[in-house]
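Aim 2 progress update. The chain analyzed this quarter is reproduced below.
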Amino acid sequence: MNTNTVIAMYRPKPGGEEGLRGLVANHHPRLVELGLATERAPVLLQAGDGTLLEIFDWVSPEALEIAHTHAEVQAMWTDFLEFCDYVSLGDLPEAGGPFPHFTRLSD
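Predicted C-alpha cells:
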C-alpha cells in the first residue's frame, strides 16, 4: 500500500479545547468516508502545552492534493481555525530533545 503518513498538530486557542476535540473526533472518519484517508485508526497524542497531534495515513500522496482542493475538506479545516492554531513539530517543547514523550489519547 502506497500511503502517506501525516502528523497534524493543533494548538488549542484559549477556551477552544472542547471544540477542538470534537472536530478532531470527526476529522479522520470524514476523510475516510471521502476516500482520502485509510481506515487505519489514527493515533491521537497530546503535548505538554496542550497541542493535539493527530497521526493518520492518506490513501496516497495524491489524496493530500485532492484534500487541498476539496470544498468539504477545506471547510472542515477552516472550522479548526476557530478553536486552534496549526503548528509545526518544531513549535512543540518536546521537539527540543531526543525521544519526545506525549500523552496518548487514543488506543
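Residues 17-33 form the longest helix (17 residues). DSSP finds three helices and five strands in the chain. These observations will guide the mutagenesis experiments scheduled for the next reporting period.
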